[in-house]
Design brief:
Layout (H helix, E strand, L loop, with lengths): L1 E4 L4 H13 L6 E4 L10 H4 L9 E3 L5 E3 L1 H9 L12 H29 L13 H22 L12 H15 L9 H10 L3 H5 L6
Parallel strand pairs: 1-2
Antiparallel strand pairs: 1-3, 3-4
Helix pairs in contact: 1-3, 1-6, 4-5, 4-6, 5-7
Length: 212
């Protein structure tokens, strides 16, 4: 398998962490796509992923899988023992619900803030910016942190009693927030404690050191 990504990207981090959790790193070759040079928007890359986003998984049969949720779902089931995405219908439903909330309420808003209210990837890549919209999305991301704090006040992980894909997505959101200096609010004690706990997992400690 080959994964097209950028080694410090928050979205690629989600798949790198999933690979670490599943012990699949030795089966993967990484191909760097330089976000700062806009390589993800070239015709050659768009032929692999119409959305022009990272990461993308290329399978030996030539099929390309994009979108972190889809890639994680595929990787989680390769060994017939899925746990990042749930086993029972209820587990799967809750994990996918919380994963989507993590995207909509935290990770994606911080991404919009980066692309619209900061220099982002630079003028050669950021062809349109709306600073007001970016700032609104930053505030949405902060509200998302408060939401997940309220969730984690009552359970050890984002989707319940076990670490899952939903936790990985919140981790990705906090990785992005740290890159753009959006701090977790002081009142989010449960979120901060959870974050400290999950950062001890080898998959989270080592995601950025995976070879490209």
């Amino acid at each position: 398998m080959k994964i097209y990504d950028w080694h410090t990207g928050p979205y690629p981090a989600r798949i790198r962490i999933a690979l670490g959790e599943k012990g699949l790193r030795p089966q993967v070759e990484f191909q760097s796509v330089d976000l700062w040079k806009g390589e993800h928007k070239t015709p050659e890359f768009l032929a692999k992923n119409y959305s022009g986003t990272l990461p993308v998984l290329e399978l030996p049969n030539g099929i390309f899988l994009a979108e972190c949720t889809a890639i994680t779902q595929y990787l989680d089931r390769l060994d017939g023992k899925p746990w990042l995405t749930g086993q029972t219908p209820l587990e799967q439903g809750v994990i996918h619900m919380m994963n989507k909330r993590a995207e909509l309420e935290l990770l994606d808003p911080i991404s919009v803030y980066f692309h619209h209210a900061t220099p982002g990837l630079g003028p050669q890549v950021e062809l349109y910016q709306n600073a007001e919209w970016g700032l609104r999305q930053r505030d949405k991301g902060l509200r998302g942190m408060s939401y997940f704090n309220s969730v984690l006040e009552h359970q050890p992980y984002v989707a319940g009693d076990a670490f899952s894909m939903a936790d990985i997505t919140v981790i990705g959101g906090l990785i992005f927030a740290s890159l753009v200096d959006v701090a977790v609010p002081d009142h989010c004690h449960a979120l901060r404690a959870w974050h400290e706990k999950v950062q001890q997992r080898p998959s989270v400690q080592n995601w950025i050191t995976m070879s490209d």
